[in-house]
Amino acid sequence: MNVNYDFAGKVALVTGAGMGMGYATAKAFAAAGARVVVSDVSAELAEKVAAELVEGGTEAIAVTCDVANDDAVAALVAKTVETWGQLDFAYNNAGVQPTPAEMADQTVAEFDRVTDINQRGVWSCMRHELAQMRKQGHGAIVNCSSVGGLIGGKALGIYYGSKHAVLGLTKSAAMDYAAQGIRVNAVCPGTINTPMVAKMLNEQPEAMDEFMKLQVIGRLGEAEEIAQAVLWLCSDGASFVIGTALTVDGGFSIN
Question: Which Gene3D superfamilies does its entry note (predicted)?
Fold first, then answer.
């Protein structure tokens, strides 16, 4: 998969960049010539990825950030601008899944944990990213929703609800800022070969068997395939794409 973009001189911020889709996207931005802000709740993972990118010839910094903490998100964006004076692209990828359970058995604590990261975290990231992009008069943001933001699912109501909310935030922000030179879109990954999905495979083999029956393409997606979708949404090739939910799910949602 060798789609080439020229993001030289641009600055890209990726949350949840320590592994999975965030890691793949940080690498893809670097390969396209962007300077990359590698953000993760794990300082160890963020620093490891940033060091890898720097070793490969990319300008990159690591910033530890829990997106559920608005002050930490404000500091993340401030560090980005302090370092490079701008913020051109942001991929708001950080997210978590709850312990699977029917809704009557889910807890307030679990609801709050997932919602704080998946929904409020995306809102918080956008809030600070948009403030900077508004000053610049340009920028592109891609939020990570999910195929679960488009459909319902058993035992994962908290997760699916949070991912539906991401699409509402995306469309609303897109309407607010399109005329100001800022494009806001979302990507909706299906079942992707990431550490989160590997955990599901181990803990919920029956559920994953059902998922795979609906995977029209007959395989899991790869994190690099999501990264390419994100880069396209940030590129000039998507200059007329506003407020969309780009589904990248191997045909799962067409069943």
Answer: NAD(P)-binding Rossmann-like Domain
Domain 11-192+222-243 has CATH 3.40.50.720: yes
DSSP lists the bridge partners of residue 35 as: 11
Distance, in Å, from the CA atom of 242 to the CA atom of 94, rounded to the nearest integer, reads 22
**Stretch (H or E) spanning 128:** helix 121-136
pLDDT tens digits for range 153-196: 888 999 999 999 999 999 999 999 999 999 999 999 998 988 77
The one catalytic residue in 5, 23, 91, 159 is: 159
Average pLDDT, the chain: 94
Domains in the chain: boundaries: 11-192+222-243
Residue 160: active-site member: no
Q: How far apart are CA 185 and CA 172, in angstroms?
A: 10
Q: Residue 41, exposed/middle/buried by CB under 10 A (0-12, 13-18, 19+)?
A: buried
Query: What pLDDT is stored for residue 3 in this prediction?
Result: 73
Q: What is the 3-state secondary structure (H, E, C) of 176-234?
A: HHHHHCEEEEEEEECCECCHHHHHHHHHCHHHHHHHHHCCCCCCCECHHHHHHHHHHHH
Asked if residue 51 lies in contact with residue 63, where contact means CB atoms within 8 angstroms, the answer is no
Q: Pick the more confident residue, 21 or 218.
A: 21
* Cβ contact 143:233 at 8 Å: no
Distance CA 90, CA 109 (A): 29
